[in-house]
Specification:
Belongs to the metallo-dependent hydrolases superfamily. TatD-type hydrolase family. It comes from Devosia yakushimensis. Keywords: Hydrolase, Metal-binding. The chain is an alpha/beta fold and 260 residues long. It contains nine helices and eight strands. The chain has an eight-stranded parallel beta sheet with strand order 1-2-3-4-5-6-7-8. α3 crosses α4 and α8 crosses α9. The model has no long low-confidence stretch (mean pLDDT 97). Bound molecules: zinc ion.
Length: 260
């Protein structure tokens, strides 16, 4: 049993064969999916997928790439969307000056609006953080002092210092295809050493397919490669990783209901 804690099932890449993809994932042992919002103004399409399938949940948020366009998204607007039973988290939101080119001030404003929504609802904040470890650690520390909120660091690619800060704030770390890329030895060390009750797995499909599929369209069934590597790194087996990460998912995402 595995849960894909971060995928983008609403993306056009999946329009031709969404049913088949979910069926393949189910056959591979994936029994729940969290499909992630990246633009609040286009949230309807994310919600539509979550409403269509029993075991698909979703989050609402603005990826930092779209911070300029969605700088006017308010905390109240995010909170209002979480009234829906299938909306179980906030995000993805965060900081990214590597892949994205939104202005820094807009990124900070939008990220803080999401933090406030997570604090107010106590729903997990799914964080996208790329190459901004110091700023991310500082904001999370400062905001947590004003009142805690559940944190999930998605596709964790930060260094040991950010991992330590995040874990000290109660955060969960999620690992996806990046973990399998040869150059990411630091991530593997962090994944090997993180507490067992703070780990999640994900695909970020259709992006970031794990080795040996890295040039293909990613899909949730491929999570097995990341989960197996995580098991190897932690000297355990796939079943144990599946059980631990699924328990962690349901502990963190309190609105998700186990189907069994
Ligand atoms: Zn994503």
């Amino acid at each position: 049993m595995l849960i894909d804690s971060h995928c983008h099932l609403d993306f056009d890449e999946f329009n031709p064969d969404r049913d088949a993809i979910l069926a393949r994932a189910t056959a591979a042992g994936v029994d729940a999916f969290l499909t992630i919002g990246i633009r609040v103004r286009q949230f309807a399409r994310v919600l539509a997928v979550a409403e269509q399938y029993d075991n698909v949940y979703c989050t609402v948020g603005t990826l930092p790439h779209f911070a300029d366009e969605e700088r006017d998204v308010t905390t109240a607007e995010l909170v209002a969307q979480t009234a829906h039973p299938k909306v179980i988290g906030i995000g993805e939101a965060g900081l990214d000056t590597f892949f994205g080119n939104a202005s820094w001030d807009a990124q900070i404003d939008v990220f803080r609006a999401h933090i406030h929504a997570a604090r107010q609802t106590q729903l997990p904040l799914v964080i996208h953080s790329v190459r901004q470890d110091d700023a991310m650690a500082q904001i999370l520390t400062e905001e947590s002092r004003k009142g805690g909120f559940p944190i999930l660091m998605h596709a964790f690619s930060g260094g040991p210092q950010l991992a330590e800060t995040a874990l000290s704030l109660g955060a969960y770390l999620s690992f996806g295809g990046l973990l399998t890329f040869p150059e990411n030895e630091t991530s593997r060390q962090i994944a090997a050493a993180a507490p067992a009750d703070r780990l999640l797995v994900e695909t970020d499909a259709p992006s970031l397919a794990p080795v040996p599929h890295q040039d293909e369209r990613n899909e949730p069934a491929l999570i097995i490669h990341t989960a197996q590597l995580l098991a190897d790194l932690r000297h355990t087996d796939l079943a144990t990783i599946g059980q631990q990460t699924s328990e962690n998912f349901y502990r963190l995402f309190t609105k998700a209901r186990r189907s069994d």
